[in-house]
Amino acid sequence: MTRDIVQQAFETIFVETPFPGVTRIVLNRPESRNAQNAAMLYELNSAFNQAARDDSVKVIILAAQGKHFSSGHDLRVPDFVAEMAPWDPVGTWCGFGCDGAEGRMGIEKEMFLGLSERWRNIPKVTIAQVQGKAISGGLMLIWPCDIIIAGEDAEFADNTAEIGVAGAEFFHHPWELGVRKAKEMLFTSDFIDAHEAHRLGMVNHVVPNEALQGFTEAMACKIAKKPSFTLKLLKEAVNAAQDAQGRVNAMNTSFALHQLSHAHNEQIFGLPIDPTGLPAALRDKAAWKGKPVPK
Ligand code: ZN
Asked: In sequence order, which residues have a C-beta less than 8 Å from that of residue 10 and are 6 or more positions away?
């Protein structure tokens, strides 16, 4: 039985149904290179929920408007707690407004690690369609997907070390790239281009940008011809194989270390990051809890 699904209206994303069985969720803040604020993350979560609950949907394509997939978390957001207030939490950790490390850990466990992990486990096939740059938090939207199709200009980087932070919160680097390349990416903050990402097994296919949408849709339609329950079981089986290798324990450890890097920066700079690593233009715009970033 198919339940009636009421499609929600969104501000930072849009959702369309290009083919039977295929839903496309599109990031729609191209003017800010699809930087992620709390609204975008929770709207994405609502859209994933809708697609997961709609029994007619078998495949979810995650795409982005504009030249770049996502520049990561929006550093111009003054206060994530205020921003997330209209949304119901998806986890039970809470304490988002608490002082010190407790509040930050609560927010990040909910909004960054929690949402990405949730989307990784959604029982529908997910395909990321990536063009341009995907940086740090941008990886946390792509890596939870089952399949990644990259345009030839796609580039991937985690530049958190430049601001004294120990990697993106959804710390999938070793699982996506292998241990040595993960270390190189994190230590250097260098971009990995689409062909290198393909060679490393991080992306499934690299196609010319003009063919990116068509290629992704063709694969989605091919997968959508398979029985829904079989697809769910296959996804669960592959994810279980990865989890049996210790992924969940490793993710919990890296998340705790990430929180330690924020707490360290708070002690030294009064901010969750080391602002001396920010480019001057970004330092001027950035603010936390309404406080300007020190020069
Ligand atoms: Zn963080």
From this structure: 28, 43, 46, 47
